[in-house]
Design brief:
Layout (H helix, E strand, L loop, with lengths): L3 H21 L6 H40 L3 E6 L2 E5 L1 H7 L21 H14 L6 E6 L5 E13 L2 E10 L1 H47 L4 H25 L7 E3 L1 H18 L2 E7 L6 E3 L1 H17 L5 E10 L3 E8 L26 H12 L3 E7 L3 E9 L9
Parallel strand pairs: 7-9
Antiparallel strand pairs: 1-2, 1-5, 3-4, 4-5, 6-8, 9-10, 10-12, 11-12
Helix pairs in contact: 1-2, 5-6, 7-8, 8-9
């Protein structure tokens, strides 16, 4: 603590006593001298203390502001509905040039009128409880007039020796839109599941009987080529119904530690016959020392088989498929399937994975939809990039065993 106040006041007392001695010829070390010097010492001490604590308070205030400025979330401090402080994240969120554009304005300037009563009640509640309030969503305005959703929690504080409200939150506009899209997708899946169960129940039961009659008719050698066509079409119906059943009632997954290289080698061996018949070569490239993954082996086999079949079918004149497996980032493994096929139109890419959206003449889109569902259930991600007449690249990202949540 700086003692300059004490020193100055004591020196004033000594100077005054010296002046008295010179002018009035009084003694120097008198009772008055000691009393005045002691009082000067006490007053100076209190003055130095006050200055020290004021400096500490200013320092704490500056540290407090620096802390608020460093937060990634938006912070708004307001007193009597007037904004007295905001951090840099808030300036960015509102699209302002600097803090001065916001400080001094009414908090209501950034809300639609319908929120006025709600904000008033929140402020009263924060003042009364003196505890953080639960988060709530508000619709707010930027400086350019655009609207956004702000998720905010408020807290009573003392700022500049006055009561104030500190509101901290973040822009959730993008997250809210994504949640709505996910909800719509979930509703589609639920509706599709109900429809799939109904179709499976109504169609699958008579299939066995129909196939039995076909075998009986074929034994009489009555135009076998027609019966072959009928049987082929029935097999196609059965395949579609099978895809519906996977969506309506997915099997319980058993997650175990697996070596992805062994799994992919098994799939390539399995599909090689089909690829050779279609004049397609499959090349596999594995990075060394790949980590293990936690997965349902049969489900992933279904994904890779489906994707490789799609790639083969996309190359009616033949070609090559590259399968590249490598570690990506610290906790993820990447599996890429790259073909030289006819590609997918850009406008069709956003609809991939939705039921009944397909680029195949007789496809249903259910196979790719199943692939998306399986990869999502493995906490992974499936992305597709494609160019017309150049080919398609499919990438599957899966968490490694260190990040995977083992499931029974």
């Amino acid at each position: 603590m700086n003692n300059s106040g004490q020193i100055i006041l004591v020196l004033i007392s000594i100077t005054f006593t010296t002046f008295q001695k010179i002018v009035n010829y009084e003694g120097f070390f008198t009772i008055d001298f000691f009393i005045f010097t002691f009082i000067a010492w006490l007053v100076g001490r209190q003055y130095d203390k006050a200055r020290y604590y004021e400096k500490q308070a200013r320092s704490s205030g500056e540290s407090y502001k620096r802390l608020i400025d460093s937060l990634p979330e938006s912070v708004i401090i307001h007193q009597d509905n007037r904004i007295v402080y905001v951090n840099k994240a808030t300036v960015c969120m509102f699209g302002a040039s600097n803090m001065g554009d916001i400080i001094g304005k009414s908090i209501h300037d950034f809300f639609e009128p319908e929120y006025t009563e709600r904000i008033h009640e929140r402020v009263k509640q924060a003042m009364k409880q003196k505890l953080p309030l639960n988060s709530i969503e508000h619709r707010m305005k930027r400086f350019d007039g655009s609207m956004f959703f702000f998720e905010v929690s408020s807290l009573y504080i003392v700022f500049g020796e006055k009561e104030a409200i500190l509101s901290i939150g973040k822009d959730i506009t993008i997250r809210k839109a994504q949640n709505e899209q996910q909800l719509q997708k979930s509703e589609k899946l639920a509706m599709l599941g109900q429809m799939a169960a109904g179709i499976a129940h109504e169609v699958r039961n008579p299939l066995t009987s129909i196939k039995g009659f076909i075998y009986l008719l074929k034994s009489n050698e009555l135009k076998d080529e027609y019966f072959d066509i009928v049987e082929s079409e029935l097999e196609r119906i059965n395949s579609i119904v099978g895809e519906f059943m996977v969506l309506a009632k997915p099997s319980v997954a058993t997650f175990l530690e697996q070596d992805i290289t062994i799994l992919i080698k098994e799939i390539v061996t399995l599909i090689n016959t089909q690829s050779i018949l279609n004049n397609v070569q499959i090349f596999v490239e594995f990075e060394s020392d790949l980590p293990m993954v936690s997965c349902d082996k049969n489900q992933l086999k279904q994904v890779f088989l489906n994707l490789l079949k799609n790639s083969i079918e996309a190359m009616p004149q033949g070609g090559s498929i590259e399968v590249k497996v490598k570690k990506k980032e610290e906790d993820k493994i990447s599996i890429q399937i790259i073909d030289e096929g006819i590609g997918i139109p850009t406008e069709r890419l956003p609809t991939l994975g939705e039921p009944f959206y397909t680029t195949k003449e007789k496809g249903t889109g259910l196979g790719l939809m199943t692939c998306y569902k399986i990869i999502e259930s493995h906490n992974g991600k499936l992305t597709i990039e494609s160019k017309l007449n150049e080919g398609t690249t499919i990438e599957i990202m899966l968490p490694t065993i260190t990040q995977s949540l083992l499931k029974a």
